[in-house]
Amino acid sequence: MKVLGIYGSPREGGNTDRLLEQALNGAQSAGAEVSAIRPCDLHISGCIECAGCDETGECVVEDDMGAVYPQLLEAEVIILAAPMFFYGFPAQVKALIDRCQAMWCRRRLNKGPQGMKQYDGGKGYVILAGATKGANLFEGAKLTAKYFFDALDMSFEDGVYVKAVEEKGAVEKRPDALEEARLLGKKVVE
């Protein structure tokens, strides 16, 4: 099984990075082949809504996203980890998500209306962390993730949600959250 981790934080080595590392270690210990990408290290522009992908399912914008699409297609499981920025995803990972409009077009073209009712591409999970304790802290990101995974022909399977962590390394004081992330990684393989 191929598991792809997406490091969605612009702060390398931060809380969601640490949580994702635990999840990928858990997946690897259960026998998965794991790989990862870090959008903030790539040059990915936002979707320009040019409709270039409407008839082909291929994005016409030339940047590092061209190397990301095959990784998204090969993955059987994707774990997207990100901190909450104003109750949503950081810009770097949001650009990657928005550029998956081409993947949605590809799915629509390949499957047709009836085929769109089922998911054949795998499963998607999130690991989200935020500084506040707000009741709706993760709701916007969960909805965005649901439709990101939908574009990839994957079902959204939920994830790990950690509130009240802000400064870099704060999650180290939350062994319960680190263990939950590790167990998520194992679960996605088993």
What do you see in this structure?
The chain is of the alpha/beta class and 190 residues long. It has one domain (2-189): Rossmann fold (3-Layer(aba) Sandwich), CATH 3.40.50. It has helices at 15-29, 65-74, 91-98, 101-115, 139-151, 175-189; strands at residues 2-7, 33-37, 77-83, 122-129, 154-162. Helix 1 crosses helix 6 (175-189). The model has no long low-confidence stretch (mean pLDDT 97).
Q: Name the CATH superfamily assignment.
A: Flavodoxin domain
Count of separate structural domains: 1
Mean pLDDT: 97
How many strands, which pairing sense, and closed or not: the largest β-sheet?
5 strands, parallel
Distance between the termini: 10 Å
**Can you identify the CATH class?**
Alpha Beta
Gyration radius from CA atoms, angstroms: 16 Å
Question: How many strand segments?
Answer: 5
Q: Give me the side-by-side strand order of the main sheet.
A: 2-1-3-4-5
Low-pLDDT sequence parts: none
Order of helices and strands: EHEHEHHEHEH
